[in-house]
Amino acid sequence: MALCKWHALTGSDTTGHIKGKSKNACLDAFLKSSPSIVDSVSALGTGNEPSDETIMGCVSFLSSLFCAKGISITQPHPLRSTLFKQQGTDKDVNLLAPTFGSWAEHAKRAHWQSAIWEQDLCLHPVVPDPTKLGWRKKRSDSCQYCQRLPQLQQQLLSWSGVPVGPVIQIKQISVHQRDVPVE
């Protein structure tokens, strides 16, 4: 079951993928992970919300994916600082690893998905409340995750003659008759 939860953490249809990291690279890293990391990933989907220990273990694993060979940094802040110093001033900050808050929200999404998969043989699964796992409720029957379109896409829309106001893209996918946000 740990492999299914690893899949939710490293990118499934509903949780989003880790930018710049292949599934093979994530699997290799997971297979080399410490037992405490494996235990943390295995704990995803247990209970209504992930424990602090589970989130910390998931964040440590995800952070380790961005370390160069021979470097072992398991927390986002020192990792981002190290990567920033190494990349130089001419590189884009989007190449940095995500922040602790981003990883924690990602772990919550993986927890939600894992909770559903944990009950795959149940006729009436009990789905955790997504509003307690980082999403906002927009309507009574769905949760939506909004992100602003990049400036270039907005410019392209304006060139096409389509009236453009503030552009917001809403991504969602239906799972178990609920609309679930994706990244």
How would you describe this structure to a colleague?
The protein has seven helices and five strands, in the order ααααααββαβββ. It has 183 residues and is α+β, with helices and mostly antiparallel strands. The protein folds into two domains: 125 residues; 46 residues, no CATH class. The strands form two sheets. A three-stranded antiparallel beta sheet has the order 1-2-3, with no helix packed on it. It has a two-stranded antiparallel ribbon with strand order 4-5. The radius of gyration is 18 Å and the shape is globular. The C terminus is likely disordered.
Report the sheet with the most strands, covering strand number, pairing sense and barrel closure: 3 strands, antiparallel
Q: What integer is the average pLDDT?
A: 75
The low-pLDDT segments are 142-153, 162-183
For the secondary structure, the number of strands is 5
Rg, alpha carbons: 18 Å
Number of domains: 2
**Class derived from helix and strand content:** alpha+beta
Distance between the termini: 23 Å
The ordered H/E elements are: HHHHHHEEHEEE
Shape estimate = globular
Helix content: 40-55%
Beta-sheet strand percentage?
5-15%
The strands making up the biggest β-sheet line up spatially as: 1-2-3
Count the helices. How many?
A: 7
